[in-house]
User: Which sequence fits this backbone?
């Protein structure tokens, strides 16, 4: 097979173990990147540049100003545009010789298996547990290699799932984390914060693992998880082994997969609506009203500190451990982005059905 | 957690490590982390001997 505009890849073809055959393998490969955010942007950039023949991009989100410090495919003029379309356009400018397919849609059990089955390899750059479990399960059932990458504050994890080692053993996400954390237990980037360079490193590593795996060079992280600290530059590799069959929690077949409710599985109850959400304006008014008391349910040390109204600090983790005594009747809860305050409200409402609970929509970030 | 290291004494097995950590870091009590001993993930309680390294791996969701 002739390689179009071969000069573009001349430096990597020159690498002895990669060579022209490595380049041809990449040209034939179809890679699906789930999430065109912090991890997806650098992964896509290097996969497109390396000459992956077909590159699918799934993301239903639009570009926001707060994305630009880490999602380096986008610029100010892209704000408000669909990430999948925008990323596809940028990557086509970088490498017009490859086939780029944007999917500006929400991935769910109804479309995941069909989409994933069209590809040879999947890169998980999603930002939530329901999607991570769903993508993992679909890849397990379809037997498609999955390059996992995930971040928390100053650390990242990378691994290669569903690829048999020399003994035929393979592992997946559920062998490491069989039970998902409860909603609000692990903070996402919007809540915990992240420096832009870390997804840059981890997403680039995911692209590297894909390129090594597809071209058959080096030692991809098959049955290993690498944990990298952006603060210390230390990395730690852990060997992964399959969990006992009896402990498997994944759907048995594609039909069972179709009927999975991954949000429910990850402890995300549809909000009952019993905790009423307040916008920033309503919040400011009521927070100063003596008939209402305000609770900050964030964990100690989270910033920005709330100012301009009286409040008490009662972290969600403490509420989960023990329901606090509440004398007041009308209680407004807030957190960083408005996710944990709803959860706290639902827990407290269970314990105090006679009281009224409110949550600041969008969290303290909306107050500034 | 992560790349931070602490020394623990009198911990006969990994369950004891979990209890010990829960006492020192109450927020870990509710966290569904995975444990690795000497750089291999374990799925059941494991007896520890001197000098073994136990790593705590929390699930990450960020992307």
Assistant:
């Amino acid at each position: 097979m002739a390689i179009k505009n071969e000069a573009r890849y001349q430096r990597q073809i020159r690498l002895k173990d990669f060579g022209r055959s490595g380049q041809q393998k990449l040209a034939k490969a179809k890679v699906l990147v789930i999430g065109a955010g912090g991890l997806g942007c650098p992964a896509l950039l290097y996969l497109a540049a390396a000459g992956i023949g077909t590159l699918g991009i799934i993301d239903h989100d639009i570009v926001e100003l707060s994305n630009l410090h880490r999602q380096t495919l986008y610029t100010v003029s892209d704000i408000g545009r669909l990430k999948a379309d925008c990323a596809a356009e940028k990557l086509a400018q970088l490498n017009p010789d490859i086939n780029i397919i944007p999917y500006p849609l929400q991935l769910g059990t109804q479309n995941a298996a069909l989409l994933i089955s069209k590809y040879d390899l999947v890169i998980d750059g999603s930002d939530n547990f329901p999607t991570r479990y769903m993508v993992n399960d679909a890849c397990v059932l379809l037997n498609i290699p999955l390059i996992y990458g995930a971040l928390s504050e100053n650390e990242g994890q990378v691994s290669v799932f569903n690829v048999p080692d020399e003994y035929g053993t393979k592992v997946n996400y559920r062998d490491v984390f069989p039970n998902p954390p409860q909603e609000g237990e692990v903070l996402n980037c919007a809540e915990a914060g992240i420096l832009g360079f870390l997804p840059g490193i981890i997403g680039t590593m995911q692209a590297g693992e894909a390129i090594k795996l597809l071209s058959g060079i080096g030692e991809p992280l098959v049955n290993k998880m690498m944990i990298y600290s952006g603060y210390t530059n230390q990395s730690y590799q852990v060997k992964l082994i399959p969990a006992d069959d009896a402990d498997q929690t994944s759907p048995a077949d594609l039909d069972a997969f179709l009927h999975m409710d991954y949000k429910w599985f990850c402890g995300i109850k549809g909000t009952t609506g019993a905790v009423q959400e307040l916008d920033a304006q309503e919040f400011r008014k009521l927070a100063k009203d003596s008939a209402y008391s305000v609770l900050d349910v964030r964990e100690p040390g989270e910033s920005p500190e709330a100012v301009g109204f009286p409040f008490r600090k009662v972290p969600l983790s403490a509420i989960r451990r023990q329901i606090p005594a509440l004398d007041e009747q009308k209680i407004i809860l807030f957190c960083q982005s408005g996710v944990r305050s709803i959860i706290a409200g639902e827990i407290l409402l269970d314990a105090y059905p006679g009281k009224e609970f409110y949550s600041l929509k969008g969290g303290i970030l909306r107050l500034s | 957690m992560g790349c931070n290291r602490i020394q623990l004494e009198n911990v006969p097995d990994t369950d004891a490590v979990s209890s010990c950590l829960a006492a020192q870091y109450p927020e870990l009590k509710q966290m569904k982390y995975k444990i690795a001993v000497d750089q291999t993930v374990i799925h059941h309680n494991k007896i520890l001997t001197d000098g073994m390294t136990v790593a705590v791996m929390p699930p990450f969701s960020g992307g």
Summary: Chain A has a mean pLDDT of 93. The two ends of chain A are 57 Å apart (CA to CA).
